[in-house]
Structures are given as structure tokens and as C-alpha cells.
């Protein structure tokens, strides 16, 4: 089996078979992570550049570990210490790096569509590690893998994404991926943090958190993106916490408390309380562990793919 796609730029319009293949390939790499020597020669001779123009902890470290554990040659590019500061364009930066014989590029950028643009102008295989508020496909794939690991299946599962949907690339990729895999997807948040005409994405919409929790087998709690001015969309963080914050007091009254995911980083005691984040319903750290194996699966499938596979 091979992926039908040459780049992983988003999950919108990615076929179910490709998502299934990535999720089904992941356990063999999880097994590698549990060995004393966590390394296989799969991508020996492949050069991968991590091109990060925006801050990241989990995604950047996770990709680098995944690449090194596949024995790829890895180069990390930090925009803050590069010639971007001298006015070099995004395209010139990418073309110069590619001229050094690079095979794959993992890219995070604040502008939606930036990796899509470069993938059309360059010859390397591109993986989107987050483009503005557009998509974050590897986060959604690790979320789906983590849910499936706990529940056994995604088909027919009720999944609600809660919080700052309007600014969230994680929400968009999760909606596209989960719907493709047959889950029933809902979103919940204050109307000011829901995208215009969000129903057109084929999701149920809740503005009452208790109703959303009654619907949900799984909740994916999103960070309030204060750096993208999301705080201006409601009167105060205290009011947000009272109305939409996930606390154990809120979950414990439910007959079946949902599984709790959060992509990180957390605003503790804002969108999620520590008694939930660190409690028995939370799989937040499983998501992080699984993220390395999911990214190894993606790098392996894209890095060993041949043009004749498409
Ligand atoms: N989940 C996520 O993308 O986290 P980072 O911004 O730390 O990579």
C-alpha cells in the first residue's frame, strides 16, 4: 500500500484510504519507540529540513525525534537567526535550502497556504506543521490515532471540539479528518469564537457546554489563542472559564465522562483545569507520545513513496 498524496498539506480532501494507511502504519513505529535502541535505518540517506517560522515545542521536537529515529539527516532552520531578517523572501529561502539537495521539508508558518505555495514552486515533499489558522494535519492525525487507540474505532463516535474554533488550525484538520473517518463531529464555544457559517463544514454546533458534554464520547479542548487576540472575543478569562472551562466538577456529574484531549500548550485554569488535564479521563500525554510514532509513519510513507505510486 502507498499514499496517493506526495505532500501532506492538510486533511481537507485527503482520501479515507490514506488516513487509514497512516493510522495503521503507526503501531509498528510505536513498537520501535518502546525498544531500548529507538532507531531504524528506514530513511538513511534522506535529508529533511525543519523550516519553522513560528514558535513550537511539541511539533518541532516531535518531528526531529521522528526523523532521527528513522535515521534521516536532519537540519533545523530557525527563522529568527536566518537571512529572512535581511529581507530574503520565503521562496528564495526555500529554493536556496533545496539547492543543497534536500528531500523533504517540514514547515510551520503564520500565513495560511504558505506550504501549499512552496510545494508548487519546489521539488521536495512538503509536510505542513501548521499554517496560520488553516490546517495542522499531523496534529489531527495524532489526535485521531490517540482516540482510536482508546476507543477501538472512529466510525460513529461523537467527538466535540471545544473552545477557540475560529483561530484553530487544529479544529479544521480534526473536522476534515474525523468526518472522513465517519465520526459525528460537533464544535462548542462562544459564538464570537465560532467561524462564520461553521455549519457548512458539516458539524453540529453547541453554544451550551453542558449540552455539548452530554453529546460527547470524546472532547478535544482547544487553547484560547491569546496571541491571536482571542481574548477580545469574551469579557474576561474568568467568565470564559465559568462558561466553557472543562473542570472535573463539570465532568463528574456525567454518566459517561468523555475522553479528554488537548493539543497543547495548555492555559491551565482557563480552558481546562489541572484536575482534568492531569486526571484519569485525560490522554494529553498519550497524544504527545503517539505524535512521534504518527510522524514517523507519515515520514516513512512519504519518504519511501515512488512517483509511480500515484
Ligand atoms: N500542538 C502543537 O502544535 O504544539 P506546538 O505549538 O508546541 O508545536
Which features characterize this protein?
single chain, 310 residues, alpha/beta, 5-stranded parallel beta sheet, 4-stranded parallel beta sheet, 11 helices, binds phosphoric acid mono(formamide)ester
Report on this model:
The chain has helices at residues 16-33, 58-69, 90-98, 114-121, 137-151, 169-180, 209-215, 237-244, 248-251, 274-277, 284-303; strands at 47-52, 73-78, 104-109, 125-131, 158-162, 184-188, 204-206, 218-221, 259-261. It is an alpha/beta fold. The mean pLDDT is 95. Phosphoric acid mono(formamide)ester is lined by residues 56-59, 130, 139, 263-265.
Strand percent estimate:
5-15%
Helix content: 25-40%
The spatial strand order of the largest sheet comes to 7-6-5-8-9
Sheet of most strands: 5 strands, parallel
The separation of the N and C termini measures: 11 Å
Globally, the shape reads globular
Number of H- or I-type helical stretches: 11
- Averaged pLDDT: 95
Query: Low-confidence segments, ≥5 residues, pLDDT <50?
Result: none
Tally of DSSP β-strands: 9
Computed structural class = alpha/beta
The radius of gyration over CA amounts to: 19 Å
* Secondary-structure element order, N to C: HEHEHEHEHEHEEHEHHEHH
Layout of secondary structure:
Layout (H helix, E strand, L loop, with lengths): L15 H18 L13 E6 L5 H12 L3 E6 L11 H9 L5 E6 L4 H8 L3 E7 L5 H15 L6 E5 L6 H12 L3 E5 L15 E3 L2 H7 L2 E4 L15 H8 L3 H4 L7 E3 L12 H4 L6 H20 L7
Parallel strand pairs: 1-2, 1-3, 3-4, 5-6, 5-8, 6-7, 8-9
Helix pairs in contact: 1-5, 1-11, 2-11, 5-6, 5-11
Bound molecules: phosphoric acid mono(formamide)ester.
The site of phosphoric acid mono(formamide)ester (CP) has 9 residues, from helix 2.
